[in-house]
Amino acid sequence: MMHTNVKIRKKVLKQVSAMPPMIGRKLAFWIDEVSHKGLQSTRKVPGFNDEALKGDRQGQRSIRLNKAYRAIYIITKGEPTIIEIIEVSKHKY
Predict the structure, then answer these.
(1) Could you give the CA distance from residue 67 to residue 80 in angstroms, rounded to a whole number?
(2) pTM exceeds 0.85 for this model
(3) Nearest residue to 86 (alpha-carbon basis) of 56, 66, 34, 75
(4) What would the DSSP string read from start to end of 16-61?
(5) Which domains does the chain have, with CATH numbers?
(6) pLDDT > 70: what percent of the chain?
């Protein structure tokens, strides 16, 4: 059975408490999926849009919590650590 620990920085807990409840639920769902199915399997789930970041954020990855929020994480000793939640700018369509 797969079991991956997901760490969350204290600052992220404060950020999530100030956001819409849906954001916390989606993050909790992602953590549960990673814990039970592993990071590689969870990366394949289209709804999370897990992607490697570039530029100043090289070495970090993001997952989509909704259209406006992304969770940023890094891999340390083979396990993900969520380092922050960011609000992305609204795109013009």
Answers:
(1) 22
(2) yes
(3) 66
(4) HHTS-HHHHHHHHHHHHHHHHH-HHHHHT-GGG--EE--GGGTT-E
(5) 7-87 (3.30.2310.20)
(6) 94
